[in-house]
Amino acid sequence: MNQLQSMRVFVKVADLGSFVGAAGALDLSTAVVTRHVADLEARLSTRLLNRTTRRLSLTESGMTYLERVRHILDDLDGVEQMVVARNHEPVGTLRIVAPVVFGLHSLAPVVQSYAARYPNVVPDVTLADRQADLVDEGFDVGILVARPMRSASIVTRRLTTGYMTVCATPAYLAQHGTPRRPEDLLTHPCLSRPAEQGGEERVFTGPDGEVRVRPTNAIVANNTEMLRQFALLGMGVAILPSYLIGRDLAAGRLVPLLGDYHLPPIEITIAYASRLHLPAKVRTFIDHLVAHFEQTDRQARDPRATAVALSKAITQVAGHDDVEDDLPVPDLSADTARPVHKAARERVVAASF
């Protein structure tokens, strides 16, 4: 029989001084209760109870055993209560792993608002541009950017979609002209990642279908934040994710290009070990993260925000020969705010990332 259950039965019999009373309290038959105590005595090769027709009493060994077993059961109950509380109340260390650039530009405000809401949880964030093994490395959740995780033990959930945007500074465009088609990138210095990270051939989809180009690299870097810095310095044309440059586009520091063409989207997901018995800290963080990006997605679809961003871009590039005369004011009530400058035809997507 189950030794732990036998210990619980023995304590109840000792406390009530009766097999019948213990059976009723534990919702067991008297025969089962008697068997549990007999099994304990057989295991220990020691009599724990003196039995008479009128009463039960503890032997000396029984008193010693009862005292120690009671402490063991109390400790076990305390551990179980603590684990149950952790599963229902957010508490403890929450280990998160995310790509470096996404973490720096998009994750910090989410972690800050979560920590403010759940002060008993301590976020422990690791930034790494590699696919971490959540189970082996002890991470509670992982953020994946354009990197699927296939594992029977891992659950993934979509957070949002990012977009790659061709962009340059207004000063660069004023000096070097504005690319109109993907092929025009061949005549501009481009800022790119190494080929193994997707830095060579680019596949655009436009009015005439698919267009493949291999931009001429002026600078290669394995970190997109470094490429953003190069782009802001006016060193060439860059192709960067929306979650990295959304604020630069909205502020007009960078101008979106090739608005009639788009590159494949970037799926951003959250991964965690299992759907079953998730600790409260993990469950609440996942919900908080999903809600945050649902809000930013709604804001990104707001045509008024898009129109404001486009107006700033127009102001920044105004004055050189790519600006059309008599620019109309963006229609803030339209379903979609269309860019009115040829150098700003790419949608400003997810500017709040």
Structural commentary:
InterPro entries: LysR-type_TF_proteobact-type, LysR_HTH_N, LysR_subst-bd, WH-like_DNA-bd_sf, WH_DNA-bd_sf. The chain is of the alpha/beta class and 353 residues long. Among the domains are: 3-87, Orthogonal Bundle (Arc Repressor Mutant, subunit A); 92-157 and 275-296, Periplasmic binding protein-like II (D-Maltodextrin-Binding Protein, domain 2). Helix content is 42%, strand content 20%. The protein is built from 11 helices and 14 strands. The strands form 4 sheets. It has a 5-stranded mixed sheet, covered by helices on one side. A 5-stranded mixed sheet has the order 11-8-12-7-13. β3 (92-98), α5 (100-117) and β4 form a beta-alpha-beta unit. α1 (3-16) packs across α3 (30-44) and α1 packs across α4 (60-88). The longest helix has 29 residues, at 60-88. The two termini are 59 Å apart.
What structural category arises from helix and sheet content?
Answer: alpha/beta
Give the uncertain stretches in residue-range form: 303-353
- The H-level CATH homologous superfamily of the domain at 92-157 and 275-296, spelled out, is Periplasmic binding protein-like II
Note the gap between the termini: 59 Å
CATH level 1 name of the domain at 92-157 and 275-296: Alpha Beta
Label the CATH architecture of the domain at 92-157 and 275-296. 3-Layer(aba) Sandwich
Helix tally equals 11
| CATH domain topology of the domain at 92-157 and 275-296 | D-Maltodextrin-Binding Protein, domain 2
Helix content: 40-55%
Shape: rod-shaped
Number of strands: 14
H and E string: HHHEEHEHEHEEEHEEEEHEHEEHH
* Lateral strand order in the biggest sheet: 4-3-5-14-6
What would the average pLDDT be, to the nearest integer?
79
Radius of gyration: 33 Å
What share of residues are in beta strands?
15-25%
Main beta sheet? 5 strands, mixed
